[in-house]
Design brief:
Distance between the termini: 128 Å
Radius of gyration: 47 Å
Shape: rod-shaped
Oligomer: single chain
Amino acid sequence: MDTPNKFIQDTTSFSSEKAPVNRLYARYRRTLFIVVLPLFVIITVLAANQYHDQQEQVVANLRQSTSSYAFALDGIAKQANDHVLQLKAWSENYLTSPPSHPSDLRNHFKPKLINGQLDAYTLDGVPNDKRAFVGQLVWNGQDPRQTGIGDVSIDQALEFFP
């Protein structure tokens, strides 16, 4: 009979020994929480500040590059506007006083045939060294190699090419 009482005493002593361990565990957990929580808050605040600083730096870089592109674009737009104004002045003067001589490019017109029939005259006969500077002009009238054909309009068109 001695054995069951001894077991009860052992269990009671085990419970009474476990209580200080639980209190110690709770105290350590509370101490760890008190130490870790401020560190976690500090790390979070530092990370947020670093993110904010990096974001401001990226925005500043974007603003700077955008303003430099805007400055360059303003220069290009001004040059284009000046060029258009020059072309306007040139075309107004050019159309009031057409060229008085036939263009040298008239000699390079070649007839274009479709199914053996004359379709038009083109500048396909321009030499290779001048071809890079000449556009394509199609003349649907009589032979433009003759100076009297096309009057001034063909010479005006050919003057646009060097």
